[in-house]
Design brief:
Distance between the termini: 127 Å
Helix content: over 70%
Number of domains: 2
Protein name: HTH merR-type domain-containing protein
Radius of gyration: 47 Å
Strand order of the largest sheet: 1-2
Number of strands: 2
InterPro entries: DNA-bd_dom_put_sf
Order of helices and strands: HHEEHHHH
Length: 175
């Protein structure tokens, strides 16, 4: 229920006059439509809770009345053809929901496959990382041994250089 004051809406009296029927007949048509659609608030309402009608509503009423004049056709059956019924809408909604669920399941399946693929890639990367860490440790050990040998070699060279400063061995006796 809303406080609607819009030129696009017609009051029941205006709508009945436009259709060439009484207000009571318009009310009957409105009740049939609300029952068929399963929506008691199908039509806009003003602050006094009176139904308000659009030109589209009037066109639909005309279709419903024209169909109702066909052989073996009642206004209720005509309304079901013109207006979406609650059951049809629910069935369509169910079909849409079922399709949406199927789509979501397919998407979920793709995402799970992607997650599994990423898990495998992470496991491969961890394995490669461990292998590299092992190689790095081996290289560090070799580097440390090489540094020890280099230090040892430097010490020998320094000893040799110190010995060279003393001169030749015969110089020790000649002083």
């Amino acid at each position: 229920m809303s406080n609607v004051k819009n030129e696009n809406f017609l009051t029941p009296a205006q709508a009945a006059k436009e259709l060439g029927i009484s207000v009571a007949t318009l009310r009957k048509y409105s009740l049939i439509v609300e029952h068929t659609t399963g929506n008691a608030n199908y039509f806009e309402r003003n602050s006094q809770n009176n139904r308000l009608y659009t030109s589209e509503n009037l066109g639909d009423f005309k279709k419903m009345v024209d169909l109702g004049h066909e052989p073996k056709m009642t206004l209720d059956l005509a309304a079901q053809k013109v207006y979406p019924s609650k059951e049809k809408t629910e069935a369509a909604d169910d079909n849409h929901l079922a399709q949406d669920i199927a789509d979501l399941k397919a998407e979920n399946k793709k995402q799970l496959a992607t997650i599994e693929q990423l898990k495998n890639e992470v496991a491969d990367l961890k394995s490669a990382n461990k292998e590299l860490e092992s190689k790095n440790a081996t290289l560090k050990t070799k580097n440390e041994k090489s540094e020890e040998k280099t230090t040892e070699l430097k010490e020998r060279v320094n000893e040799q250089v110190k010995d060279d400063k003393k001169g030749h061995w015969w110089n020790r006796f000649v002083k």
